[in-house]
Amino acid sequence: MKTIVSWSSGKDSAWMMHILRDGGARGAGSDIVEVGALLTTINEPAQRVAMHAVRVELLEAQADRLGLPLWKVPIPSPCPNEIYERAMADAVARAVAEGFTHMAFADLFLEDIRRYREDRLAGTGLTPIFPLFGADTAALAREMIAGGLGARLTCVDPRVLDRAFAGRDFGAALLADLPASIDPCGERGEFHTFAYDGPMFSRPIDIETGVTVERDGFVFTDLQLAG
């Protein structure tokens, strides 16, 4: 199972990588998963990870510590869906040409998102797998933290979560402070993160927290490489 990982730079992608490399991929049967590359969509004008707003140099630091090649898929901002799908179709065709057989996604419970991915990959030669799908997100969040995952919130939807959460570390204190209406993993888009430490990385990524701004209806906290 030569697998390319849909990599968002956040905690769920990072924990999925840990699970895949630990041999515990749910839904992957007994086959051995060989992770061969990361694939990330990039807001081309801003040179940041789409939605998470993480700087490309931080994304590259993650790839370095994972020891994997990084496939950056540039998209415009805003990005019409047909342009996004065309860019992804090109990336999928390249993956198939290079011998990849599977694509891993860190979705947790949103059935419509899973069906969309399955529909898009049907007949391409890439089989989607969802190693974390169906997990209890409260238990999963605690598992990540107990397992040594370090992540920081880079994006908050202020319509559902106080902007003060932007820039905070994803840890036990944050989970205790989250309103009951918020998914502990932010699966409905309540927040997004950048993973900087954990058992999936060869060493931590030293980061500094920069300014927090509100843009396009979301609150973003800028992170930079320390030093």
Question: Outline of this structure?
Answer:
The protein is built from 6 helices and 10 strands. The protein is an alpha/beta fold. The strands form 2 sheets. Strands 1, 2, 3, 4, 5 and 6 form a 6-stranded mixed beta sheet that branches. It has a 4-stranded antiparallel beta sheet with strand order 8-7-10-9, covered by helices on one side.
Structural description of this entry:
The chain is of the alpha/beta class and 227 residues long. The protein has two domains: 2-129, HUPs (Rossmann fold); 147-225, no CATH class. It has six helices and ten strands, in the order βαββαβαβαβαβαβββ. It has helices at residues 11-21, 56-66, 81-97, 111-121, 137-146, 172-177; strands at 2-6, 34-43, 48-49, 70-75, 102-104, 127-129, 150-156, 191-197, 207-215, 218-225. Strands 1, 2, 3, 4, 5 and 6 form a six-stranded mixed β-sheet that branches. Strands 8-7-10-9 form a four-stranded antiparallel β-sheet, with helices on one face. A hairpin with a 4-residue loop joins β2 (34-43) and β3 (48-49). The protein is globular, with a radius of gyration of 17 Å.
List keywords for this structure.
227 residues; alpha/beta; Rossmann fold; 2 domains; six-stranded mixed sheet; four-stranded antiparallel sheet; 6 helices; globular
